[in-house]
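Researcher: Re-running this chain for the archive, since the previous output was lost when a drive failed. Same request as before.
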Amino acid sequence: MTEETWNAARLIPTSGIGGAQEQERRATSALLAVMSAVREFGRALTAPLGAPAGNLECFVEVPFEIDGRTVFPDGLLRAKRGSRTWTALVEVKTGSNPLTKDQVETYLDIAREHGFDCVVTISNEIPPSPGLHPLTVDKRKLRKVALHHRSWTEILTQAVLQKEFRGVADPDQAWILGELIRYLEHPRSGAMSFDDMGGSWVKTREAVAAGTLRANDTHASELVSRFDALIRYACLSLGRQLGTEVTPQQSRQEVADPQLRLDRARALLVNEGILRAQLRIPAAVSPMRVEVNLRASQIMCSFSLDAPGKGRPATRVNWLTRQLKDAPDSLRLESFALRARTGAAALLKDVREDPTRLIDDPSRELKSFIVTAIYPMGAKRGRGRGSFIDSVVDAVEKTYGDVGQQLKAWSAAPPRLRSDDDVIIDPDADDTASTALSSQDTVTND
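Model: Regenerated structure tokens:
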């Protein structure tokens, strides 16, 4: 037997996982143990929940009595600093196992009775918006106890960001965090990625294409919610590679009222067959706009940017194409002139040959550009070749690599000091002498 078949000794082994219960227990114990051992990682996960920056203690399967029976929450977190003690109960699900309302509400009751601060749920469910919980629980149970949710994808992302980008002070602790990352990335860990658009995906997609989907169809709301969850997953996936927080961008009204976002997105889907979202990427020239046209089976990802404030129209177009020198020829470029309702559009390969393709009227000042990448849409509901999920995630990551990380906003050059060689024009001199200008007096943006 060759060495390739040997299992390397691991701090958190994936071998020996015999079923869903064992998978859940091992994932819980591994996560909580590393949170307590690697201070920076534990702090990254608990600080947003309101925990103080003290020593973090983690326990698994702590028994509690309630209504004459004994229940065992998967975990308990406790952080102390000074006279303050923060405590949270933890409920964990792995694989495709969903959270259950009765179980979570029971843990909320226990937390209230014992004066604990919150209940934290962990599963592969990704809510459509940050801050939302996959379950709708009795709001009366949330008066004194907070309820938080973290997906395994989000936890894995935080682990990678901490180890690879933010840093861990102790090398041994960094290695321990790396072992957790390796474990969570293994298929047998149960920390799955977003892998299903839901049972109504095919039916709803066909109804959109046929124009028979209606706003009161429950499948429309389900598809919109799944798409928003997919966008959050794409944000986490991209952020893990960039080492920064990538988040869905929504209006203040939509953040305050998630139902408003759902209503708007559902109306757009029913009326135009389009799913739309925006990704906020720190330091990018603009948010990335993602638009999926289910009727045309296309995915369009775009960035917008202002044109330079100086130069002729052709000069401003050349400024854009120079930034896209390594981008694919198939990109679509659009230009918009000052106070113009519509703009010119052309493929990048054609604009490279003739910049005037983006200039409708040379006498009008160009104010902005939109750069769009267009991809075919996958149709399958799951993961793998030809799937909708993979086609969206791949489109987001490829567009950022080809376009987003290449574009920079224009900034004016600082004024320059006049040199001794500059010619001082004497108003009494003859016309020939007075026409001599130094190169510093001539502005060019080509």
